[in-house]
Design brief:
CATH architecture of the largest domain: 3-Layer(aba) Sandwich
Largest sheet: 6 strands, parallel
Number of helices: 18
Strand order of the largest sheet: 3-2-1-4-5-6
CATH superfamily of the largest domain: NAD(P)-binding Rossmann-like Domain
Structural class: alpha/beta
Strand content: 15-25%
Distance between the termini: 50 Å
Number of strands: 15
Shape: globular
CATH topology of the largest domain: Rossmann fold
Oligomer: single chain
Radius of gyration: 22 Å
Number of domains: 3
């Protein structure tokens, strides 16, 4: 039975999936815009540090005031409305909530939210992929131990890439490469919130209209978010990652199967079975026609002559050899698609992407020369950007995960372009996020990693 049919059935039975949302910013607002249009779901409560801002966003996406006037979570359940407050613990512990959607974008807080939700028997759709990037395999293990489902968020590119990889493997195709698109030039790694809009391609007026956060959008531009998302994909699918960071080969959609081949066959890959990001800009800054900037893709291999002949007979667009074929979605709709994850985890108990191994990591890398006393401002800020590295490399250098590089003081000089290590900073070792990451290193590190 399709998810939509099951949702309709839940609506007819007056037995909706009951949802708690933590964080009602841009991503959360996009999901909020779709909830009134989806049968069989009830947003019981929103927890946000600024309830007034959450109400403003609800008004922006078209919610009527009457839908959000519940005086408590119990009242919201009784009359089918939504309660808005600051207390996320009350939300995740309420016995009627089925699924928690973590949407804060704050990785350290997200770990707390996920763990508490698991402890109270709630499925979690984790939009805050930054948290998944540094401890996703252990979050997945904690969820399984609690008998609930932990999932990446459909609509965000990692889950969409995982879906394409699953399609390929289920159909019997070896995955050669998978990833997303991005607007990239090397100097973007130095971008700050002050320079983001011009490079990103939006005016300040457009950014203000959309309520867009310059630090968050800068995390896309400077390469941090692509690295984070590729880490989530690698750890969910078992694909490997480039040895020294993403290459961002420029390519049109037509050229993706050409560039996402092994080096020995004219492509850019060190080996088959890797993640990569394709740039929508040529090295000289020219825009590539029919680009994949906002989309996702998977390149597969036709291993036999018969399969390659099928590619040809059905006009599948391949590389010149006819061996490699790319399937793609040119767009993703971000929070507008989260309903797929909510329905999947609640009705099928299936994640739309979940970490199963530790192949990749995102290491904080200096945007400028850092000196003792400097305070790191995390993803998308002024001090560091995130570099995708194999987990083994990160372990060997003692790499500082980007997701934990927030409000951390530097204790020794770090040159621009260098990856930071644990020894370069004074960490707050009291957070659950820090403890979970250290536990991850102990549990998932291979003997080779430990020897390094």
């Amino acid at each position: 039975m399709s998810l939509y049919t099951q949702l309709q059935q839940r609506a007819a039975e007056q037995r909706p999936i009951r949802i708690g949302l933590i964080g009602a910013g841009k991503f959360g607002s996009m999901y909020l815009a779709q909830i009134p249009r989806t049968p069989g779901v009830h947003l019981v409560g929103i927890a946000d540090l600024s309830p007034d801002a959450a109400r403003t966003n609800l008004a922006r996406v078209g919610w009527a005031d009457a839908r959000t006037r519940a005086a408590s979570l119990d009242a919201a359940i009784k009359d089918g409305t939504t309660f808005i407050g600051e207390d996320w613990r009350a939300l995740v512990s309420h016995p009627a909530i089925d699924v928690v959607v973590e949407c804060t974008g704050h990785p350290i807080a997200a770990v707390d939210h996920c763990l508490e939700a698991f402890a109270h028997g709630k499925h979690v759709v984790n939009v805050t992929v930054e948290a998944d990037a540094f401890c996703g395999p252990l979050l997945a293990r904690r969820a399984a131990e609690a008998g609930v489902v932990y999932s990446l968020a459909f609509g965000d590119q990692p889950a969409l890439i995982c879906d394409l990889v699953d399609w390929a493997r289920t159909c019997g195709f070896p995955v050669v490469a998978a990833g997303r698109g991005h607007k990239w030039l090397p100097h973007f790694s130095e971008s700050t919130p002050d320079t983001v809009w011009g490079n990103y391609g939006l005016t300040p007026e457009q950014a203000t209209r959309g309520g867009l956060n310059p630090k968050m959008f800068n995390s896309f531009l400077d390469g941090s978010k692509p690295s984070i998302e590729c880490t989530a994909v690698a750890n969910a699918t078992g694909l490997t990652v480039p040895s020294n960071g993403l290459l961002y080969p420029p390519a049109s959609v037509d050229d993706i199967p050409f560039v996402t081949r092994p080096i020995a066959e004219g492509g850019v890959l060190e080996r088959k079975g890797m993640v990569e990001v394709v740039s929508s800009l040529e090295a000289d800054g020219r825009t590539i026609p029919y680009d994949i900037r906002m989309g996702v893709w998977v390149t597969v291999e036709g291993e036999t002559e018969y399969i390659r002949n099928c590619f040809e007979e059905y006009n599948a667009h391949t590389d010149p050899s006819g061996r490699y074929f790319t399937l793609y979605k040119r767009w993703h709709l971000i929070g507008l698609e989260v309903g797929m994850s909510v329905a999947s985890v609640a009705l099928r108990r299936e994640a739309t992407g979940v970490a199963q191994c530790w192949n990749a990591d995102v290491v904080a890398t200096a945007k400028r020369d850092l000196k003792p006393g400097d305070v790191l401002d995390g993803e998308g800020g002024y001090t560091v950007w995130g570099k995708l590295l194999p987990a083994e490399t990160s372990m060997r250098i003692g790499g500082l995960p980007l997701g934990l590089a927030h409000d951390v003081k530097v204790v020794r000089p770090v040159a621009k372009g260098a990856s930071l290590s644990w020894d370069d900073v004074a960490m707050d070792a009291t957070t659950r996020a820090y403890a979970l990451r250290r536990e991850l290193e102990g549990l998932f590190a291979t003997p080779e990693m430990r020897a390094a």
